[in-house]
Design goal:
The chain has 19 helices and 20 strands. It is of the alpha+beta class. It folds into five domains: 87 residues, GIY-YIG endonuclease; 140 residues, no CATH class; 96 residues, 2-Layer Sandwich (Nucleotidyltransferase, domain 5), CATH 3.30.420; 143 residues, Nucleotidyltransferase, domain 5, CATH 3.30.420; 50 residues, DNA polymerase, domain 1. The strands form four sheets. Strands 13, 14, 15, 16, 17, 18, 19 and 20 form an eight-stranded mixed beta sheet that branches. Strands 4-10-9-8-11-12 form a six-stranded mixed beta sheet.
């Protein structure tokens, strides 16, 4: 294709341009004040820039959309990138839809988890990092403040089991007044926001009221709520930041450290990876827009450690979602030491490791290492694991587990080949390949090389690590004794041990679930639904055996069936 002739037809106007590959797949999307001039710049850069060269090589057509203004082009570009996820656009590799808690705007509010800001009407709190914190915090809110667990609020004549478990105050059957319930919801909001001083005195008044009426159980519940809030206050006094909520984006290299402040204190941090970085400075506004375009909560304060070339566009775009947005192109002094402490620790460790790695192996330390292991029990429950080390730490969001489908009986090599083949196929769409680390010796390494050759992944590097001797076997014939290299020993054994743990835990989970189901199949009165309730609650036969009949009855299991369960497991 003669790209110069194609570009000559492009108008001298503002808009968005789209490079498309085979089967209509989007390769790159960009915006410009002058489309023709910008595309001529792309073509000139392709002579010296490998990324620009690949964009033209992999594209079969070029489209453009004319816009009425530069701002409209900014908005349209972000929407199209979000929709089509082009291969070569600068993008965040992580940071997608962190979970938030929502206290709903209902007459009797409840608490929900949402990964998209604004999809549920209510007050948003978070995000929570790591993600499992959101579920734990939701459970704590139910336990402390008894907000209803059912949705929508039903009409009942009797309480549900969550009331007996102490997770709900049962407004559906008027076990609590509307005024009292709404104070609980207000207290839950204060607890989640960290701004508790406005409500804590109302709770003290409530304790006195309950005590005067000799309602000591309810007074004890409110006392627990106050204790939880006082813990929040203590944390605030330790940190004492001058702004209630903020997101801080600290760009360094190909990374951005995201620091989340809620309730005047740091509640989370995450190191986000940026892909396809060429001209980072001109892409900062798009990166921040991409983060919030994924549905993450937008605070009223955003701090960035660099100048934003399109700050005005970004503010206008965010203001459509939240009105009181302020973006500061400087990081507050109150948080500087916290950021530098986190950045310097990560950078120094990686710098030393990178230098040592290249000295021993003769090539640069990859940004990503994937560790693999196989787990089986006498030829049953064959599973595989893939864990990911990235930019200095284990990235659990990227972990994957595999149930082996084609191998029966004990055959670790065949199981490994299946798992590696299923994983390596995905490498064909990756711009930069990881280093593969397989738990095992030369035999396991050979299986990795077989799969590598079958998929024609010429640039993929494959290592294996032998237990006990702690020797690395490389695909170019080296044998590295890790005890002679402590810094490499820490790196590779951490990945190997995590892959082993992850595989074993998946194997155990499958075994326990099957064993539990097989046992419950023999008990009269336990059908599919009750099996699921028992598994979800107890996970193992041993835990069910320890539960008393009253506990089983609270789960909705009739007394006779509960007695059958206890009798069978006892015998």
């Amino acid at each position: 294709m003669n790209w110069r002739e194609v570009i000559d037809k492009v108008p001298d106007e503002s808009g968005v341009y789209l490079f498309k590959g085979e089967r209509g797949k989007y390769i790159y999307i960009g915006k410009a004040k002058n489309l023709k001039n910008r595309l001529k710049g792309h073509l000139q850069q392709s002579k010296i820039d490998p990324k620009e060269k690949r964009i033209f090589e992999e594209s079969v057509s070029l489209e453009w959309i004319i816009t009425s203004s530069d701002y409209e082009a900014f908005v349209l570009e972000n929407e199209l990138i979000k929709q089509y996820k082009p291969k070569y656009n600068v993008r965040l590799k992580s940071g997608a839809g962190y979970p938030m808690l929502v206290i709903t705007d209902d007459e009797y509010p409840t608490v929900k988890i949402s990964r998209k800001y604004g999809e549920i009407k209510g007050s948003y709190f978070g995000p929570f990092i790591p993600a499992k914190t959101a579920r734990a915090m939701k459970n704590l809110v139910h336990k402390l403040f008894k907000l209803r667990t059912c949705d929508p609020l039903p009409k009942r004549n009797m309480v549900c089991f969550d009331y007996h478990l102490g997770l709900c105050s049962a407004p559906c059957v008027n076990k609590i007044s509307k005024k009292e319930y709404q104070l609980d919801a207000k207290a839950a909001k204060a607890f989640l926001s960290g701004n508790v001083k406005g409500v804590i005195y109302q709770l003290y008044d409530r304790i006195r009221d309950y005590t005067d009426k000799m309602m000591f159980e309810k007074a004890a519940l409110v006392r627990d709520q106050i204790k939880a809030m006082e813990n929040v206050i203590q944390k605030q006094e330790v940190t004492g930041l001058p702004f209630e909520e903020a997101d801080i984006f600290y760009f360094y290299g190909r990374n951005v450290l995201l620091v989340i402040v809620r309730g005047f204190r740091v509640v989370g941090k995450e190191n986000l990876k940026i892909e396809h970085v060429e001209d980072l400075e001109s892409s900062l506004s798009n990166i921040i827009a991409e983060y919030y375009g994924r549905g993450n909560y937008i605070p009223n304060n955003i701090f960035v450690n660099k100048k934003l070339s399109e700050k005005e566009f970004l503010v206008n775009w965010l203001s459509e979602k939240r009105k009181d947005i302020k973006i500061e192109e400087a990081v507050p002094e109150d948080i500087q030491s916290f950021i530098q402490r986190n950045i310097s620790t990560l950078s120094s460790d990686i710098s030393e490791l990178s230098s040592y790695f290249k000295k021993v192996f003769g090539f640069d330390l990859p940004e990503r290492i994937e560790g693999f292991d196989i787990s089986t029990l006498q030829g049953e429950f064959n599973v595989g694991s893939c864990v990911v080390w990235e930019s200095g730490k284990m990235n659990k969001k990227e972990y994957r587990r595999f149930k082996v489908k084609t191998v029966k009986g004990v055959d670790d090599y065949a199981s490994l080949r299946e798992v590696l083949f299923r994983r390596f196929k995905r490498y064909k769409d990756m711009e930069s390949l990881p280093l593969v680390l397989i738990d095992g010796g030369k035999g396991q390494l050979k299986q990795g090389l077989i799969v590598k050759d079958a998929l024609d992944l010429k640039d993929l590097r494959v290592f294996s690590i032998a237990k006990r001797e702690e020797i690395i076997y490389t695909d170019d014939g080296k044998e590295i004794k890790l005890y002679d290299h402590p810094i490499l020993l820490r790196l590779f054994t951490q990945i190997r041990d995590e892959a082993h743990r992850f595989a074993i835990s998946y194997n155990r989970k499958l075994r326990e679930k099957k064993a539990l189901q097989e046992v419950l199949d023999n008990i009269e009165g336990v059908g599919k639904k009750r099996k699921e309730i028992l598994y979800r609650t107890f996970k193992t036969v041993e835990n069910i055996a320890k539960a008393d009949i009253e506990h089983l009855k609270k789960l909705g299991i009739p007394e006779k069936v509960a007695q059958n369960i206890k009798k069978y497991l006892t015998e």
